[in-house]
Each structure stands twice: as structure tokens, then as C-alpha cells.
User: Fold these one by one.
Assistant:
Number 1:
Amino acid sequence: MLKKESNQTNCNLCKSSDVVVLYVSEVKGVSRTYLHCNYCDLVFVPSIFHLTSLEQKKRYLEHNNDINDPDYRKFLFRLWKYMKPILPNGANGLDYGAGPGPALVQMIIEDGYNIAPYDPIFYPNQDLLEKSYHFITSTETFEHFSNPGIEIKKLKELLKPNGILGIMTSMLTSWIDFPDWYYHRDPTHIAFYSKHTMEWIAGQFLWDIEFPRENVVLFKS
């Protein structure tokens, strides 16, 4: 078995040193450690276990992100159905972490809104990060953040006053179930959130928060 050792002692979100080992996985002869922060409740993978950009890209291209796939569009609509009714006319948005097939961007454009895709690997247009937006979507992206605190601060800076950040990411109600959870088996998934974590984020960034359905979170600035 290939075993790596991590000496990381601070949370990737809140920087607290109150972290403990939650679980150590062994997949195909490779071990990976998951740390739990007792302060913000994030579970995260230490940086020594993170994939390179090329390894990540290879994994992302294995996903089915066909913009015309009705099942994929139905999945993404779980977020958009709650955002669309509360957006002002003419709202402009950013899809942060769009991936190789920005289906949500296409759906939102079809509904008459302006939105652009940003992704550090597939759509790395830095000019988009110099603007501000009425709304930001981030579907199945937060779990890929190597430094969630930095990324979320960036998203806050991109939002206009009274803006909306809508995210989708799988969450557990109890970390006791983590060992049997499918979500951590994807090697690109390195940050895992609970409702408590999301509430901590809302408090830290002075956002209102809603959980309109399972695994969907709305932050309002």
C-alpha cells in the first residue's frame, strides 16, 4: 500500500487548529486521510493528497456533462428552480466551476438571463473575476476547493450588494456515516460540508442562508 503522511494541523476553511483525523481510506492500494474541524465542521483532505491539475482534468473529462442530456439538466434544475424566481429582471451571473460541459449556463441563457462560465481548467477567463454579478451558481464545485476559505471570499467579492450565491454539493447529516459515503471516493473531492459548516460560512461572510432542498444552499448578501 502507498501511504502518505500529512502533518497538516489547520483547517482549510476556518484555519482552526482544532482538527482531528476522521477517517483513513484505502482504495486500490493508496491511502488517503480525511481531517475533521471541530470548529466549522468541515471535513477535508490534506494538500499532500490533492491531485495535480492534469490529473484533475483527466478525471473531470470522465464525467457525463453533455449540455443536452435531459437527466443532467434535470439534476442542475434542482438549484436553478429556486434561484430563478428571486432574481431581478436583467440580472447577470457567473457559473463558477462550470466544468467541461456548462449545461447550467445554457439553461440559464435559455431562460433569458446573462451568464458566463468560469472554470480554472476549462474556462480560465480571468477577466470574469474582475467584474461583479447579481448571482453566482456553483454546482458540484465546492467539494473540489483546496482552500475553501479563499475561494468563498473570492465569491463574496464577486457578488453585488443583495446578490445571491447558489450552490449544490452533497452533505451528510452525521459524519458517523462518512466511511460508507460514496462521495469521498472521487479523488477530486477534497472538501465536505455539513449544514453546520454552511451556517458557519454564512455567519463569517454576513450572508443570509436557506436550504430549500437537500444538498442545495442559497446564500444572500
Note: The radius of gyration is 17 Å.
Number 2:
Amino acid sequence: MDERYIGLVKETIRELSDIMNVSIKDQFKDAIKSAMGRSVRTKDPMFWPAGMLILGLVEARGKIADMLPGTEDISKKADLGGLVCDIDKAISDHLALWSNKYGSRIDYIDDALSGAALIKLYCQLNAEGKAEGDLASSCELAANRIYGYLTAAPRDKTGSIVYNPSRSSNVFADGAGQTSMFLVLYGNTFGDSSAVELGELQLLNFMKYGCDEVSSLPYHGYSLTEGDGEGAALIIEKRGVLSWGRAAGWIIMGLSECRAVPELRDWYDRLVKALLTYQKKDGGFAWQIQATEGRLDTSATGMIVYGLGGASIDHGDISDTIEALWQNVQDNKVLGSLSSCDDFGVHYQNYGHYPWGQGAVLAALSK
């Protein structure tokens, strides 16, 4: 196995283990950002940046575990087995922190990404005959708590889970992608058909209300309001950038788990086809998909590559895309990721090293 890849895995383990440790300097920066009305990191260990790191590690774990039976070199086999154990320990420690310090609390629908990753880990452990172990039990507990939170979360009139109900009735691509991914995985893993149906509904609604009719590309989100008068049609307002790179990433990641519904499978293939027409010359994707001369965003590119695998259409040779991602890895850290987004249309053009870039790229390179 490539030493670069092993280094990337080890760095991601370190970052997950350190994600809740915020330095005094960063706390001061967060205070300034908060005073300016900008978003800051949360005190939620299951929030999506951690979820992206966990997803990357779980996919890496699966890749490494699959290699173990065919590895004849005893020393190399021991090293790879040790790496799997290190991943398990990092995730187990993170779940213990969430339980012991935060009371296993779920605060946001964005926690669904962590849940999806943990269900994938549960499935790996089950296949290895470890379903009764402590880590598998912790994964199942987390999944159950997230499912409970999502089923109780406010929804709009069509059944879409509202992203931040204390502020608005907006539906975000972030929420639709993450919740659909989690709910379908949860339902299929634990035999709950209502979870699958709720997950599929999130994407069916987004396809209907949140996409560009010509290109099939998603907006960042949408809102529905009732028209005047009895029986008036809903007023649809599509919001944000068409198509923000990570919004496309969220949707394609959700669609990759929701292929049983013909309409979603068709949209998935159309979306993949559309995205491939907007690849930059180096194979990557820009922060805004159609801005092919814009700067490559490693987080969006990693998410899109990760979501390509289940499409029916041939996505062709993506070796250039993979190489573009590796070109942005220095000292085992993924650089070139767009910073956090504060709201519809608020995308500061700051690029650097962030957990969502690290995790997304590791997940993509692991598949």
C-alpha cells in the first residue's frame, strides 16, 4: 500500500482525536467571528466536520481490511492490521468522549453524516463477526439516537426536514444529502422501511423543488411558502449558488445510497453526467461547479468522487482527478479546501486545511 495513503490515514486519525481540542488562539478567533455574525465551530462531537473525518476513516478501514487476507508479507500484514486497530480506537475514543462529556446528545441534523459513517462501520464489524463488541454496540447506539432526533425534527408541508428550524423553514442540500444517506443506510441495515422512505423523500423533494430544470444541478437550497387564498399552490423559492460544489457533493453522496427509486436513480445518472461536463482541465471541480476556471476545491472534489461509484453511467477514467487531489496533499494534510459557508450565497474564498477536506479526500481515495 502506498506510503502516502498510510500517512494520510494516520493524519486523519490524529485529527479526529484532536478535533474537540480547541486552542486559546482558535477560541479567540471564534469569538471574533461570532461577534461578526460568522459561523464558528460547534461543541458537538458528532457535527459534520467530525463526521467527514469518521467517514474517511471508515472507508479507509474497509479498504485496508480487504487487503489483509491477500498480504503475504508478515510484517506488512501486521502494520496494516495495526492501522485498522488504530482507526477503531480513534473512533471508539471519540464515541466515548461524546457519551461521557456530552451525554450522547444530538444537536443538529448535520450529525446524520457521523451516523451514516458509523452504520458503515457497524456493517464492517458485523461482517467480521464483531457485531456484539463494544464498538459495534456504540455505533448502533449512536445510529439509534440520530434516528430518533431526525424523526422528531421539524419538517415542511412536503415532509422535508428543515435545516435550522429556529431561524427559517429553509431546506438545504447539506441536510437533504446527509439525512437521506443516513436514513436509507439505517433502514436497510436495521430493517426499518419507514426510515428508508423518509430518506428517499428528502431527495425526491429536493429534486422537485431545489434543482435547476435545465442542468439538473442543485441549488444550495429552497423554501416553500403557501400562496394566498384557499387551495393556492405552494410558492417555491430556490436559493443560493447554482451549483455550489459541496452542495453537489452532498446530493450525490445521498443519491449514491438511494438507488432503489427509479426517479432518484435517473436523477443520479443525469447529475453525474452534468457534473462530468464541468470538470476542470486538471480533473478536479471548482468551488462553484460551473466555474471551470475557478480554483479547485478539494472538499467538493473529494465528495463528488466519493459519490460517483453507484451511478449507472460510465464516469470514465478519473485518474487525473485522483492525481489532482494528491497534488493538494502536503505532509499528509489535505490543502485547498474551501472554508465553511455561513449561509446561502456566503462563500468566503478562503482555501486551506479543514477536517471536511481531509475526510472527504480520504473517503474518495479509499473507494
Note: Strands lie at 171-172, 221-226, 234-239, 329-330, 333-334, 337-338, 341-343, 346-347, 351-352.
Number 3:
Amino acid sequence: MPEHELWVTALFNRFLAGPANAVLNAVGHPAHDPAKPWANWMTMEILAVVIVIALVMMVRGRLSVDNPGGLQHLIESIYGFLKTNAEESGIHHSEKFVPYFFTVFLFILTMNLIGAVPGFEAATMFAWVPAGLAITTFFYYNIKGVAENGWRYVLQFAGPAWWLAPLMIPIELVSHMARPMSLTIRLYANMFAGEQVTVAFLGLVPLIIPVIFMALHVFVAFLQAYIFTLLSMIYVGGAVAHEH
């Protein structure tokens, strides 16, 4: 994991070290170096949040039914694409869940693409960030499963027949507990590897060749955001399915 301090992180540590230390001390996790409580993954994640909020505000301020702009068309296309995928994943009344999928996709994609900008790093190449997103998805689909099916939600862990329950319950529990780890490793490993390959070729061959890897990095950024979102849809679909 990179140890160098990005210029954005340096600014945070210079002007906002006090608030960061206060928060870290309040949660019982003081910084190793009080002079530098901000890590690169923290500042990159905050930057992604700011970009997403700014993007949403721009679209909201220019919403038009008669004369939609290019940005509105793009956002609506992404939203419609995710809605279609959610329905194909077996989610009935997908409009209730698409806002979550859209937010996750846009947030991950923004963090991934930031890594393609010189002087920045993708927040998703730090394991803490994919882990946080994976845990959030884990709680989200389980909460939605209980909300949709009530106490009958737990019956899906018992398998198709009652006599299989002693075998199926441990298997299902291990399977569900492994999902956050799987989501974390997939996103983290791919983004970390892509970042390292891009940086290595930028150092070895500063012209032409790195452009190819930058394009590949952008492709991987979109692909990994989509895969994470698609798997989230599949998990939600299984949790809220009334057939189970």
C-alpha cells in the first residue's frame, strides 16, 4: 500500500488535523501520528463524496422534461440500465431498491476514476473502503429481506426441506458471511493491481504506452463498479424473493 502523502491529504493534515484527531479519539482509535491523522484513502473518499454531491446538484438544478441536457440524459441512462439489471436479477418492484444500487455504482465509479487522474489515488485500492461498502451491502440486503418477508426470511437458511436444515443452516450462514469478504477482495484486488500496473508503466515508459494502460484502468473502473453493483442486486434479489 502506498505510503506517500498526496497533496490533498497534506492539506487536510495541515488545516484539519484537529477535527480528525477529535473524531478518532472519540471513537477510541487515536491516530498513530497526531500531526497526520488523515490518510490518503480518507481524503480520496471525501473527494468522491463531494464530486457525487456536486454532480447530483448540477443535474437537479437543470432537470427538464421538455429539454433535458446531456448530463441528465447520461444519469437517466445509467439509472434505467441499473433498473433493468435489477429486474433481470429477480427483484420485483425494483424501483424501491434502485436508488441504493445507483448510489453505490456512482460512488464506486467516481472513486475508481479518481485514480486515473495524476496526483490522486483510487480510494478503492485501500481495503478499508471496499470493506465498508461490502458490509453496508451485507446489512442492506438482510434488512430488506426481513422487511419484505418478516420472520419467514430466516427460513431460506433452512433449505427446501425441514430435514435438510441441520446441514443447510451452517452452509448458508458461512456463505452469507463470506459475501462481504468476496465483495471486498474482488474490488480491492482489481483496483490495487490496476493502479500499480499503471504507475509502473508511467515510470518506465512516459509516452504512448501508458495511455493504453490508462484506458484499461478506466475500463476496469467501470467494470468493477458494475460487478459490485450487480452482485449487490443478486444478493438483494435472493433476500426479498417471496418464493423463498
Note: The chain is about 70% helix and 0% strand.
Number 4:
Amino acid sequence: MQGEELGLLLKQERGQFLDFVSAYEYKKGAAQKKPGEQLARDLVRLLAGMANADGGTLLVGVEPDKSVTGIPCQPEELQAMAHSPQMLLNPPLNPSCEKMRLGNLLLLKFEVSPSMEVHRVAGGRTFYRIATENPSLPPEQILNLKESKKHFFYERQHVLDASWEDLDSAAIEDFAEKTKELREPRSLLGQVYHLVDNSREKISLTMAALLLFAKDPSRWHPRCGIDFVKYEGTERRHGSSLNVIKRIRFEAPLSRLIDEAVGRIKEQMRERTILHDLFFRERLEYPTFAWQEALVNAVAHRDYSLSGASVEVWMFDDRIEVRSPGLPPSPVTIDQLRQQKRVHFARNPLLVRALADLGYLREMGEGIPRMFQEMDHHGLRPPEFSTEGFFFTVVLHNTPIYDEATLRWLNQFGASTINFRQRRLLAYAYSHGKSFSTADYQNVGEVDRDTAYRDIRSMVKLGIVVPLKPKSRTYRIIERL
């Protein structure tokens, strides 16, 4: 069993919920055993980052390329390593620790759940896991994180009158199959995902377990589904002018809810015919990734303690609005989202881990920036974010801001080549005489002169634009396809 479990872990890539730590360091091409204190510091930093975020698994004795090299330590050193999270973190952390063997190589597997507390390295920094990175947090973010963790309780609360029979066994089997887990269901939900407590005679279920797998989720949460409404026109009207065309209520355990909603909502989207590479092609009015990411985020990150409201999707002729109960948790701000900052914080870390392993949340911290890229790539306005009452809203518009010729020319430059400001400027120049000035860049990009100068110099080096004259502040674009 251990060999199979280890094989499945090694098939996965490093990410939000998995990382590897080598017991060796490499100097001048030669492998040397890491000093015990250094190895302990490496692993407690990662475990603290995972505990402060969404939890996860750490394998010690594996290289970054996933080759297994083992831990060349004596039993007393292994014992000290296993206890290092309790000794080197404040407050102490108590992850599960298991010895694993691959042939004659010894490894340690740590599993940690998302913590209600914020853990820091004793006398040092506080770490937080974002995808494959483990940055230390500045003081103001640590305070925000502590405040936000006070609201973790809802998904973790144990529902006294719920029993294992209230869960949909088929949904759990589908989950185990998709996550390629070999453990029996109760062990899987308890030891790996911390959704149930098996320590007592009667199994105890968390609210997260019921939201994910209950036969009847609405019994435990009256508004945990998705309400879809399609309107005629560009605004909501009431009374005798009511303009609702379609209304659909989606109710299912969260492990199935998103797929059901995506399939039915997609049917309501219009297709538009575009000319691409001399062929007419059909394309949905919204980029698939953008609207589905907004919907997944709404389900995963909503405030479920607001039990009187559902996730809402409103579709108008010119836009789609995805409305999620609950304001962004304090480490995340509207300005950060608008600026496409790489941010991640889970209000519901137990739900987030399960949904991520089902494939819905693969790009921790990257989803919002990619939404901007997808909208821009399709020639559409960037996503809009706002709050109204206790709802957080994402708005996607379907009206193109570039004509087809401009968009076709722009799309020769990948997102990794030019940034959003440069792309807007090139689109402006393409339709305004194929030239622009530094002042034009400042106005269109809404930036200061120094930023405009850096961005323009970058495009000059890439061969995208050239000065009209030596030392000129006016440039022309190079038309190339």
C-alpha cells in the first residue's frame, strides 16, 4: 500500500497542497547530507506555510525533480525531525508524520490541515503557501490573516445530528476515483481531507463534508446552490415590466454542482461568427476560462455562514454578473484584484482543497490574472470587481473593444511578451495611424512618464516599435504577422 501511495504522490506536481524536501545539499556538483538543523528549518517553513494556508502534504527525502534519494539520518535525528514542527514553530504545530520506505530508502511524509492559528518560525518569519511558492508575510498581512482565520469556523463545525448515512456514497466514490486515492472512504475524508472525525465511536461530520457530499445539501444549508437568471435587455426590471427569460436553480453537492451549472449555463450563451485565418468560426460570447473561473471562485470562496443567500449568475444582453455572498476576506482587496496581483486566501480551506483536487482550482493565485489575459485576448473589456451590500460581484462584458483586424494583429504577441498596458497602447496605435508618442502612452496606459519610458524601451528591444527619428519620443509600430 505504501508503495502505491508513494507512486501516486510522485506522479503529482508540486503545488498548493504538495511539496518535496531533499535531505541533501549540492556543492560543486557533489551531494552532501544537509545538517539536521537546516533540514528541520526547511521542512518547518513549508509546513507552517501550508498550515497558514490550505493544508497539504510534504515528502522529505525527495528531490525537486521527484527522484527519491531518501533521508540518511540516524533514528534520533529522525525523531528530532518528526518533532521539529512542535519545537521550532510558535504556536507549535502537530502534523501527522509517517515513515515510508522505497526499497532501502527511508522517507517521511507529513500531512497538515489548515490551521485556525497563524504559525511562525520561532523568533523569525511567518510563511504562507501560494501555489509552489512559500513567501514570508509582511506585518500588516499577518494581522489580516489572523483576523480572517477567526471566520474559519463555519465549514469546520461538526453537525451533531448528521451521520455517515447522510452522505452520497456514489459522490464519494467519484471523488476517490478522480483524486486517484486508494484509501477507504472514511479514512480518505478523515486523514487526508480532515472532513470527518473518526476518533469517536460515532463518526462526526463537518459542514464542509455535508456541503461537498450530502445526499440533500439543502437540508444542512438552505442556499448552498446556484441561482441563474437570464434577462432580456441590459438591466433588471420588475413588476409589469419583468424581463426574466430563463431561471434555473442548481442544487447538488458541491462535488457535482459546478459541472451541472457550467453545462446548463453554457447552453444560454450566444455564439458569434468571426473570421479567423480565412475561415469563419463560431466562438462563445465570453471566454470559457474567464466565466467558469468566476463561477468556481464564487462557489469555493463564498461566505457559507450567510445561509440566506445563494451564488447568483445574472446574464444580460451585454454582460454576465457572478455574485458571491460575502465580501473578499481581509488579506484580499478589490484593488489587488484590479491590479492583477497574485493573491490567494481561502475562506473555506477544507472546501478549497477538495475542489482543487477535483480539478476546479488548479491555478492558485493565477486565476484572476489569467481572466484578464483571456478577456484581453478575445478583444473584450477587462473583468470588473465590486461589492454591493454583502455580495462580491465579478462582471464580464461581451462587447468587443477592438475590431477583428486589430485583434488578429495583437494576438501575435503572447501574454508573456507584452503586458496589459503595452497591449492597450499597441491597439490604440494600430487604429490611429500606426504611431504614438510617450505622452500617448501615459494617457492610454494611465501611467507616469518613467513607467511609460520603461515599457516603450522594452517594446523597442523586442522589435515591436521603432523611434521615428534618433532620440525621438514618437514611435511607429512594425506591422508584421
Note: The chain has four domains: 2-137, 155-219, 226-397, 413-477.
